[in-house]
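Blinded run. Sample ID left blank on purpose so nobody reads anything into the name before looking at the predicted structure. Input follows.
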Amino acid sequence: MTAPAMTPIRLRAEDEEDLKVVSACLQDAILPVGDMCFQPDEKRFVMVVNRFRWEAADGPRPGPSADDDVLAPYERVHCGLRVEGVTGAKLRGFDLKERGRIMELLSMETVEGGVALHFAGGGCVRLDAPSWRVMVEDSGRALAHRLQTLPPRRTGLTASRRVQSAGDQRSATWVSACRRLITSCAVFL
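Blinded prediction complete.
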């Protein structure tokens, strides 16, 4: 049995309900601290994550044991996230100087005057954005990820709603642009 074909996600969130769907898709995404950046002149926050593909994990597994994951391994995919309309960014629980430190995104939520990104270990990025828009897009092919068990699901939401397909080349270009923006970013706060 082979893994299900990957349909890259391409999502836009403009309100609290939309953001819940994006948060469910990005739950348990991992990234180094150095792959997030606030660009004050453009009023933009960007980050590139390694997203766990919940939509593929929700399907039936080929056998009763973890050893059968070789037949249909869980998957991760590179994914770009962009938040427009950001006027300020504050962080708590981690240091930007630890650029290689790996963070795990637990959830995203609307807060008064913006959006908050919550990370494992108590880290948080608070984006001041009275009028915000979040864009998320997968890039490239899914990568097999050997797990003995699924990460704990923290919400009851499924990530299959509002999923649109996107071409690999365009997605890769978009995430490459996000990485270039992060590389050129000199200021976070």
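Unblinding after everyone has recorded impressions. The first strand starts at residue 10 and ends at 13.
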